[in-house]
Model the fold of this input.
Amino acid sequence: LAKTTQPISMDSYEGQEVNITCSHNNIATNDYITWYQQFPSQGPRFIIQGYKTKVTNEVASLFIPADRKSSTLSLPRVSLSDTAVYYCLVGDKDTGRRALTFGSGTRLQVQP
Amino acid sequence: NAGVTQTPKFQVLKTGQSMTLQCAQDMNHEYMSWYRQDPGMGLRLIHYSVGAGITDQGEVPNGYNVSRSTTEDFPLRLLSAAPSQTSVYFCASRRTSGSKVLTDTQYFGPGTRLTVL
Done:
């Protein structure tokens, strides 16, 4: 039932911009794309959500191309505290259910 | 608001025992779900519910039962615990939009760490 594909891990340094891309070829017409952040021993936390084009909030930006088959989470000027696992989330189109399936997640390690 | 609460925080079971993990939310959310997360892995959907009286299976439903008698509560039952069910269990809830476009901001509980010996 895997519906998203992300890089398993990424490394960065403090102050750099990090871009994490998620592939979601079977995204449903009415589905939003949502990104979550998870620290060890905690539940995931909402970061950003979008439908198409670009969305920006105080934490991140989300870029979605016209075909919506992928999305890119952009974290500006990361710090050590951004070390976490990042998940992108879309709906389940194939079965017609509104189940919400997480991808494998991307483990981001920020170095000093 | 307390958000999403889960009890217990930790639990150790012996193989074959049964137990119920509790989940409650006070945000009047229609949608609730249960995930499990094995060490170093992503979250896998066990069961979910789009409203009181309605439940459906996720990716890994075997060995688990759920019910949704109220909007607030969504308990997860392990009928006969097995070592393979050792995991961290997260409950989540979200509001379902009345419009055609589905928004998806889930709120997660703190998790229940379950060990089956």
Observations:
- The mean pLDDT of chain A is 86.
- Chain A touches chain B at residues 1, 30-32, 34, 36, 41-46, 49, 51, 85, 87, 89, 91, 97-105 (CB under 8 Å).
- The CA atoms of residues 77 and 85 of chain A lie 17 Å apart.
- The radius of gyration of chain A is 14 Å.
